[in-house]
Amino acid sequence: MAPASPMPDPLTASLKQLIVDTLRLEDTSAADIPDDEPLVGGGLSLDSIDALELVVRLEREFGIKIASSEEARQALASVAALTTYVRERGDPSRLPS
Amino acid sequence: MAETPAPIRIAACGCVTPFGDAQASHAALIRGECALRRVPVLGNDGGDPVPLALMPGRPLDETAPPGWLSSVKGLAERLPPGAWGSPGRPVFVTGSNFGVGGLYALGRTGNAAFASWGALPTCTEQLRLALGWGPDVAILSHACVSAHLGLLEATRAIEAGAADEALVLSFDFLSPFVAGGFHSLKILNSEFPAPYRERASGAIGLGDGAAFAVLARGRGDWTLEGQGVYNEMHHFTSNRADGSGFARCLEAAAGAADGRRVWFKGHGTGTLDAGRLEVAEASRAFPGSPITGWKGSLGHTLGSCGLVELAIAIESVRSGIAPGTIGGPGEPMGPSVALDNFGTRGFDGVVCASNAFGGAHAAFLLCHA
Amino acid sequence: MRLFFSAMLERHIDLLFTDDAGGESPAATRDRLKGLFPPGSTRRMTTLGLLVGAGLSRVDPGEDDALVYASGYAESCALEGFLGSFPTPSPTLFQTSIHPSAVQQSLIGRQRPIREFLPMSGSSLLAFHAVRASLLMAAPRCVLCGGEERGTWLLEHGLASGRTFAFAAALTRERTGAAIGTLGISRDGGGGALGLAPFFDLLRERKAFDGMVAPGWRLRLKWN
């Protein structure tokens, strides 16, 4: 797995912790998750079910609505892609400041 | 000289869908009707509207006793009389969800009246008692290939002399439990299904359904040949990208169909990747065979789909016309996909296939005896 | 026409694994067994999945083997969890709660296809039905496995098992040098029943059995 990038964005940091907590990644910390690697099929060994579990959690946390599995795939292409997606579509009052 | 046993045949078969019995369901499909309607995914608890095909008058939320019991009892009235569940006359009950609607209601309300139908064994025991069957009632539950497995086990039991005749009963009725689960997978959404058609995103519909088949030696007009199964164990919700799971399952039916002209009744739920793989492998195994699927109208009847659709396939052969693939717009995934109804008289049989979570596959060749 | 059936259907027990988790907590079971699985693969596995998977890793079903899996209540804890996740249902728990998840969890984790897989459920006749299905399989080797996991609130309603256990047995048509016993059924008069837990106890204790297990059916379990 590539070395993790620095975490200057609180939303990115929050999303990485959400990934660890939701998917019960026992041997991975938030700091270990790279910004730009694929989430599904990448070094974390996440699959499409993990992606959908993240979708449920994201919808609940940030008030977004992901309509289809194809849209989920795009939103979860990487942590960076997810950060952009949540920032654009999430309820602003629920985003970390 | 030993007597050659008479071949095993389907001595009786029937189904019930929101359209009615097998004949009524077939007729509705021929007319291009769609049983799916938009229903809040969590029933009384609301939620996104999703395409479901419920039995007329039956709400999505469960009652105690279950609202679907009358449909199964009505179906059971058409069974050949006999001491089902007694030695030599086993019953194979197949399905995926059984009474989970009651489990959901129990969890939401705490009302113990829902409990007795809530688990697989308790639901089946209640059904056994309601239908007056003996104790030899086996439960086979493997999601959407459950019915195929019931037919295979029934065939084996008769072949081995462990049964004189066997009943396979298959049922699956929707509930917020089931609809909510598929909705969480993002494949049951606001879109209506378009099986075997290319579109931007896949979508399924779900439907209520129940069916039965009686297998016996030397009685009945229909044979099951080349019963094949295969389990990819690749992923819970996706198939190997090379289509090998579909191909391996179809080998037996293809062997049985060798030299014969057949049509193909596929699984076709409306998901994209699986639909493409199924069309590709069915076209390869049965070149030139028209491919059709009916879940775009009936919805996916889950654990009962193999037997519900077998009953409709029998009607298609009997009547001389098979319904084409019903569903929303989109380019067909292959030239063999039959979008329109087609005549069945020129064919020797129909290959019926189903697929399930975990990359499970099942298929057989149905022929007129 | 009524056929006369007097033969015994029988196979040899080539390998056997049993695990009675007793009062062990799910966390303790996970700690005990997770080393048997690829790293990181157990985070979505249930207690039943871990136990059944441990058994399958020992008897190692091949692609051309048959596999019969029996569980009355199957994934009780995943069911409880899924029900508790509404109104935002968890896709992981939905998937995991569907029978026959326990077998799929380990075989998918190991990417081990199998041609013929028959998942069963039931209660007082479940052991008989599973044994009958195993003995009717065409494959020369059939793995018969099963188990239950203890439920919580579902158990209070009589909708889950009160015990956590699992077994896996490799049954062969031909006797091998490693055979440890035989398992057979035959038609007979009289009635009887054999649920999954009592059948598990017979296997675990290597106890011989000769008795009626269903109306019209006798089961014989012998140890070498």
Number of strands of chain B: 18
Distance between the termini of chain B: 25 Å
Most extensive interface: B-C, 67 and 63 residues
**How many domain units of chain B?**
2
**Percent in strands of chain C:** 25-35%
* Unreliably modeled segments of chain B: none
The average pLDDT value of chain C, as a whole number, equals 94
Distance between the termini of chain C: 39 Å
Question: Oligomer, anyone?
Answer: heterotrimer
CA radius of gyration of chain B: 19 Å
Please give a quick description of this structure.
Chain A is mainly alpha-helical and 97 residues long.
Keywords:
heterotrimer; B: 369 residues; alpha/beta; Peroxisomal Thiolase, Chain A, domain 1; six-stranded mixed sheet; five-stranded mixed sheet; globular; C: 224 residues; alpha+beta
Protein described:
The complex is a heterotrimer of chains A (97), B (369) and C (224). With 97 residues, chain A is mainly alpha-helical. Chain A is built from four helices and no strands. Chain A has helices spanning 10-23, 48-62, 69-75, 79-89. In chain A, 28% of the residues are buried. Chain B has helices spanning 22-30, 69-76, 100-109, 120-131, 146-159, 176-184, 244-257, 272-285, 295-298, 305-319; strands spanning 8-17, 20-21, 37-40, 49-53, 91-94, 137-140, 165-172, 197-198, 206-207, 209-217, 222-231, 262-265, 291-292, 321-322, 331-332, 342-343, 349-356, 360-368. Chain B has a six-stranded mixed beta sheet, sandwiched between helices. In chain B, strands 11-18-17-12-13 form a five-stranded mixed beta sheet, with helices on both faces. A three-stranded mixed beta sheet of chain B has the order 3-4-9. Chain B starts with 7 loop residues before the first strand and ends with a strand. Chain C has 224 residues and is an alpha+beta fold. Chain C has one domain (10-223): Peroxisomal Thiolase, Chain A, domain 1. Chain C is built from eight helices and eight strands. In chain C, strands 3-2-4-5-1-6-8-7 form an eight-stranded mixed beta sheet. In chain C, strand 7 (209-214) and strand 8 (217-223) form a beta hairpin. In chain C, helix 1 (26-33) runs parallel beside helix 2 (47-59), helix 2 crosses helix 5 and helix 3 packs antiparallel against helix 4 (91-97). The longest helix of chain C is centred in the first third of the chain and has 13 residues, at 47-59. At the B-C interface, helix 3, helix 4, strand 6, helix 5 and helix 6 of B face helix 3, helix 4, helix 5, strand 3 and helix 6 of C. Strand 6 of chain B pairs antiparallel with strand 3 (116-121) of chain C.
